[in-house]
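Lecture 7 notes: from sequence to structure.
We start with the chain below.
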Amino acid sequence: MAIEMISNIIWLIPLPPLLAFFLILLFTRRNHALSHTIGLGAAFLSWLGAMLVFVSALRTPEFGKEIFASSINWLPTGSTFLKIGVLIDPTSAMVLFFVGWTILMIFLYSIGYHNFGQPKGDHDHPGLPPHGATVTDEHGHSHTVLSVEPMYSRFFAFLGLFAFGMYTLVVSDNLLTLFVGWEIMGLCSYLLIGFWYAKPSARNAAVKAFMTTRVGDVFMLLGIGLLYSQTGTLNYREIFYNADVLKALATTASPILNLSFAGLIGLLLFIGTVGKSAQWPLHIWLPDAMEGPTPVSAMIHAATMVSAGVYMVIRIFPLFTADWAGGTAALTPTMSIIAFIGAFTALFAATIAVAQNDIKKVLAYSTISQLGFMIAALGVGAYVAAVFHLVTHAFFKALLFLGSGSVIHGMEHGVLHTGDTDPAGHHIDPQDMWNMGGLRKKMPITFWTFLIGGFALSGFPLITAGFWSKDEILAEAFGNGHWIVFATLAVAALMTAFYTMRQITLTFLGEPRTKEAEHASETPWTMTTPLVVLSIFAIGFGWVGIPKDFLGGNWPSWFHGFIGSTLLVEPKELDFSYWPLLTSLVVALGGLYLGWMVYRNVKAGQADPLQKPLAGLYPILKNKWYFDEFYAFFVVKPMNWVSEVFTPWMDRTVIDGILHTVAHLALSIGGILRNYFDKPFINEFIGDGTANVFWQGQNIRFIQTGRIQSYLVATVGLAIVIAGLLYYFMPYLIH
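Predicted structure tokens for the same chain:
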């Protein structure tokens, strides 16, 4: 396929979801079937375009040096233009591949998610999730009436806009339009996390996500502005793949922290990722984002939002490594900060995940931890390993979140079947893993696919994608002598395997611990088909990144060569080492075995077996190291106090004082102008002049009779007068 045609297709990839957004909101809101058909069709068209571009990239010889790109003039900047365009290189082609697949699967899953087992009751109205009650008919019989989400069409419209933002970000050839897609996703996260806006917890979570990510976005925008001021462009190829520009940025000292401009700009942009990808200390919004519908959780954690943050750091990788010698050389200050944030976040989030009981929140902290792995890899210069883990993580995390939604729906079916409530009249929590157990028999497809996703997350050896990508990160850290990063990530990987097996055991193994779990049921094909498709990628995609000399073999190692060709200088592939491999095997298998041993015999009503050995540490982990309380006390409370104490004073004294002063000044100037300009000049001089003109008009109007005879007499008379004057004065004029 011609490169020109591919470039045109790239421009079109983001458009179908955007068109679906407008079509659904403007025309098809009342037709649910048509709305989800339009949404799914748009996702399919974008997927098709993404696959065409990806396959064309694979078939293009020397792709990496020869890329798909085109641009247009956008904003005039004096004698030149700020251009925007599209760019597909090996890295963006790979990201486009997983984004296309995961978004398509999430759209398909959403149809079943909002239509399966949803009872129609008095509470079934916009703003509340349509589940959790039974309906009593006129004969006094209770039964479940199936319905759809009350804001069903709007949900697919918002998903379409979310997909448009991510596709725009991926295909952009510059940081400005990347930032546009970045902010569109920020808006969509707010709309979808708070989709059930009648729930206070959902509203609060939406505001929390929006405000927290804005903190990072401000610094990111400062970085974009500083980069443009130093280079005069925001185009990737003109900056990040231009050796002269990178050298100039790396050798010019900035006035802040003795960093080079390359390091300072890279750090400012990275703070944007800290917010968007929920890295410590701006991680607090992501677990609360679970208040949205489960397909939204999958979109945020796998297909769009948090993946975008890591993708942006991948894009600017040549910038913050511009003054780094590479390999085992000491890391630059910016790289050290990035490596520390990533490694610390990976371990920090893993410690919290081991004590969470909500099936989705375990996965949320798992996402934060796995993103930390990617950030740490980029911090130590492991570009290819970071991209590899980004792709594999997208597949198995989308699988796990969609699987958790399937589990929750199966449990809700059991809740509706039993109708049991506690003394306060509440049903059991269908997301609490302690209310589950034995679901492998009730939901076999969900169980096996969730098991595959869980093993991939844990890094189960050889057969899962997560093993190969996580092992490569550990190998890069070990091989280049970054021992602290290596040890921290190894411990985080051990804990990952532990809490993953804890989740699988509590949810699927053993016997049901509640009546609701006994009556759980498998979900429909629209929900299970995406699970099966994603489970294939969760296993098979890792095989494309097997190290070329793994165990003395001669593997193709296609992924390393393909992704590495994105950079100016292709990263050197490390020689195979047994130590990272043995570490990966021990932490994965050891964590899985330990998790199974601890939780295999948990009974109904039993306390968490970790409570006793962890003692006082357990409530700290369960309460997420009290970070929410910390921010509430040291940030939210002071801001509320300032608003309550200083805002009235600021408003009434300062702002009102300024406004009143300006108003009095304006009145004074108005009085002066009225007395010394308006009255004597406008009213008297100009006013009297108009009165004189009016008087003259009144007195000479008699000559306008409308009679031709009068006009002829006046003309003849005037001619006689003129002739007489000429006759009298002619002699004087001649002489």
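Points to note: Residues 69 and 87 are 4 Å apart (CA to CA). Residues 119-123, 132-138, 140-146 have pLDDT under 50 and may be disordered.
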